Amino acid sequence: MTQSTQHQFTSDVLTNYPLNLALLDEVFNKEGKVNTHYTKVLDQFSCYSVEDFKELNEHAKLSFFNQGVTFAVYSDKSKGVERIFPFDLFPRIIPAAEWQRLEEGIIQRNMAINWFIHDIYHEKLILKDGVVPAELIFSSKHYTKAMLGMKPVGNIYNHISGTDLIKHSDGQYYVLEDNVRTPSGVSYVLSNREAMKKTLSGLFRKYNIRSVQDYPQHLLSMMQSVAPESADNPNCVVLTPGMYNSAYYEHSFLAHNMGIPLVEGRDLFVDKNFVYMKTIYGPKRVDVIYRRIDDDFIDPLVFRPDSVLGIPGIMAAYREGNVTLINAPGTGAADDKAVYSYVPAIIKYYLNEEPILNNVHTYRCELETDYKYVMEHMEELVIKPVDESGGYGILIGSRSTKEERDEFKRIITANRRKYIAQPVMSLSVHATFIEEENVFEPRHIDLRTYALLGKDKQFVLKGGLSRVALRKGSLIVNSSQGGGSKDTWVLEE
């Protein structure tokens, strides 16, 4: 039986907050006392009645509405309907020393992954040495033969990385997965901060918090650093699939805040292996493209011939070194969830260092011993497809029916390469305002961090997207699965 206690607070919205002793609560310790860095937040909230907080919550929603902060879910019954991104007013706070260690681990991890991507498209030394199985890479649907021998400017492939972390009940951070194709969500980090400043400005001023608003400037600087050498004054653009994409808000947000054009494939063309943008003044050369289009659709002459989203001939221009694509095509071979299990070995191989951040133990279903273990212990595991995102295709064994587990056993057996399994991790919880009940309750959270790699440039956004599983007991934090987010405060020393 899970031990839990009800704790009394002077604030109406925190009355009878249920502290679950089996979970790591980031706000309260096991005795129910407030962790030091949250004291000022609790002091402020103690001044609010339920009606006060409901009004503040509506102000935050209005801020998001006015900013146009929305998202769409492809599987939603109301296709095409935009929703305001759910936001919780109780900030997540990370002390300076704790963040410093995280940042070091994030940079280490992404530097090693960048070396790995270069290697698998060139000498393949890590495969020849047997550190990572060659068949694992060559069987990945994201391994891109068109990238063989390609050397991007600065030798950078994963210019932008989104590292997903959880804080376990042992107090340690663990990496859940690496996102080095087109990681999304950073616009919500900046929008969360804007909403927080407007709604709880008094509380915000009581803390010395690292800024997140400089991310667009760092992003643009990184893009300019990897422009082709022939570009004296690089022209950078953001390439979007269009307004019906679920992340279109983010595409337009980043382009606007960097002060660069937002373009679609039809706005660009290739001539003599150079990329140009159509303008009312005539063609204008494009040097760097932050593309938010999947590899398959970027060039119909190389990938899917039926794509109308990409630019015919852009891969030839890329191969000639006349344009830089961010992130590089083929990076998905490194964020395959089966490859994830080898990242600690990848770090040791290329950097000769011990990993700073922990991995979650991972079972690869294509391995016979792992496959048997997963089949026999499915109730204790989380089953994930190696190439999906957004929380789709996941089975949480402990919350599944026998029929669901039997169906997953059949699916896994039919395609063992596609699935991995991990033990159910005890994600930390955080006090979160539940609108239906008008009280705070603990909800599971994770953290997506954002790192930039440029030519001689490294940057980690001082904060990140703390995603919240708003459904009681749920471990799925993705917005597409009913999750929300919090502003993440990284404190100055």
From the alpha carbons, calculate the radius of gyration and give it in angstroms: 23 Å
Fraction of residues in β-strands: 15-25%
Kindly state the number of beta strands.
24
SSE class: alpha+beta
Oligomer: single chain
Question: Helix coverage percent of residues?
Answer: 25-40%
| CATH hierarchy class name of the domain at 97-160 and 211-351 | Alpha Beta
CATH architecture descriptor name of the domain at 97-160 and 211-351: 3-Layer(aba) Sandwich
Helical stretch tally: 15
Quick one: overall form?
globular
Biggest sheet record:
9 strands, mixed
**Unreliable segments of 5+ consecutive residues:** none
At CATH level 3, the topology of the domain at 97-160 and 211-351 is Rossmann fold
Mean pLDDT: 90
Distance between the termini: 40 Å
Summarize the topology.
Blueprint: E1 4-7, E2 17-20, H1 39-45, H2 50-67, E3 70-71, E4 83-84, E5 87-94, H3 96-120, H4 125-128, H5 134-138, E6 160-167, E7 173-179, H6 186-199, H7 201-204, H8 215-225, E8 236-239, H9 248-258, E9 262-263, E10 268-271, E11 274-277, E12 284-286, E13 288-291, H10 295-298, H11 314-319, E14 324-326, H12 337-340, H13 343-351, E15 358-359, E16 363-364, H14 368-376, E17 381-385, E18 395-396, H15 402-414, E19 419-423, E20 429-434, E21 439-454, E22 457-460, E23 465-468, E24 484-490
Parallel strand pairs: 5-24, 7-15, 8-9, 8-13, 13-14
Antiparallel strand pairs: 1-2, 3-4, 6-7, 6-21, 10-11, 11-12, 16-19, 17-18, 17-19, 20-21, 21-22, 21-23, 23-24
